[in-house]
Amino acid sequence: MNIRSVAKLLAYITLFIGALILIPTLIAFTHGEMESFKAFLITEAGILAFSLLIILSTRHIKALELSIKDSYVFVTFTWIVATIFGAMPLYLTRTVPTYPLAFFEIMSGFTTTGATCIPDIESQTMSILFWRNMTNWLGGMGIVVLFVAILPAFGVKGTALVGAESVGPTKDKLTPQIQGTAMALWGIYLAISVMQTILLMLGGLNWFDATTVTFGTLGAAGFVPKNLSIAGYYSDYVEWVCTIFMFLAGANFALYFKLLQGKVKRVVRDGEFKLYFQIVMITSLLVAANLFMSGISGIYDSLRLAFFQVISFITTTGFSSTNYSTWPLFSQMVLFFLMFVGGCAGSAGGGIKVIRVKTMMKLAYNAMTKRAHPNAVTKIRIGDDLISEETALQIAGFVGLYITTALIGTLVISLSGKDFLTCFTGVLLCLGNIGIGIGTIGTTACFDQFSSFYLWVFSFLMLVGRLELFTVYSLFSKKFWTR
User: Fold this and answer.
1) What share of the chain is helix, strand, coil (3-state, %, to 5)?
2) 152, 226, 380, 396: which one has the fewest Cβ atoms less than 10 Å from its Cβ?
3) 380-382/385-387 β-pairing
């Protein structure tokens, strides 16, 4: 374990985060938000002091060589340190009254959860809301992935770093060099973000709303500068644009790279994407039919509301376009089950991931086949891809650990005295990085109802969920720290 190299690289990425915070600092200054401006300056000073202290104490280290273990430590502490400093402006401006609330809010932003503890979002300053939403966008593709993409000067091989932060069991290498892969992913991410921002501005949104909504959409995160989420814009056009781009954010970004290379057949035949598309279509039509037959809305509105909310849940974006808690129980249960699915591997979305759900179904089917035909040779194939036995075992272990974490988390949160549905969905929406749930945590309530202890628990769940459990949990293993 090369702790000094990890610390030095952590100092560099903290400085990088400080450079990004200059954007909302400039917005605060240009819009005369002096209290916010001072808060951002204090944050920048803290970042500078922290980083320089580490850099000076590790100045004799020239080569930054990180092992897989080092990468796990680096990635985990990057997200923690980023949140520690990122929360400071919210606390210093009294956007929230306590630091645990500020930490929760920014952890929710960076992990693309989108859960909030701010009751009145629209009363906050523009710079604070911009920074809050910017964390969504940065976390969507990954802080470390961006760092690897644009800061190769430190000479660190980024394969292990990207692997420790990437979501899903598959990590497509798009170019021969990992730096090229990181640049390709962020280039596609940026291009799609610009497209959505332009379309939203054409729909009547100003630059601030268009940009912040895009941050929340492409990050599959859910923060918007409106108390009513997307419903606060009262625009079908905005809803449809967000619906389309939420769907795009829930797909594997490697597929867009293949499209640019002209490999259309490989994209169309991708097994995980096909299943993702089928789940979205079937569940959306079922919910729309349920809404229409229940007299909630007409055919058009039923389709609009159903597609928006289904895609919002399965991609773990967490936007809401209506108060879905008034929907029929069947529609609410469909949304509840989608919380377990999530987007595709390599997407901005959270959750278990479509490929893992499909693999677990195949494993169950193969187990039944083996009972009836003990000598049968069974394989797990998803589209054209053959899932190896090792990968299948890793997926089974992940799902088991995910469920165990959800159950233990629910047990701990139940000490708060809240009802079971609130505790369980609260844990699921944090662990799955979803942001909105069912029960008293839905479209009309936020996490400020919980005390500091439970906010720290929820923050931990968001972190382990975003870093796919193993990266964080490995640090608690005794074997991890032995040679």
Assistant:
1) 70, 0, 30
2) 396
3) antiparallel
Nearest to 279 by CA among 318, 258, 307, 303: 307
| Residue type present at position 314 | I
| Strand partners for 387 | 380
Task: Quote the pLDDT of residue 172.
Answer: 56
What does the pLDDT look like over 169-224, one tens digit per residue? 654 555 556 667 778 888 899 999 999 999 999 999 999 999 999 999 998 888 99
Residue environment code for 228-245, b if the CB has 16+ CB neighbours within 10 A, otherwise e: bbbbbbebeebbebbbeb
* 478/473 Cα distance (integer angstroms): 11
| Angstrom distance (rounded) from CA 64 to CA 287 | 52
Cα angle, residue 16 at apex, residues 256 and 178 outer, rounded to 5°:
40
Q: Letter for the amino acid at 132?
A: R
Q: Are 248 and 240 in contact (CB under 8 A)?
A: no
Alpha helical stretches, state H, 87-235: 88-92, 99-110, 126-141, 143-150, 159-165, 178-202, 207-218
Residue 184 backbone phi and psi in degrees, to 5? -65, -45
Q: What angle do CA 100, 101, 102 make, to 5 degrees?
A: 90
Q: At 304, give phi and psi (nearest 5°).
A: -60, -50
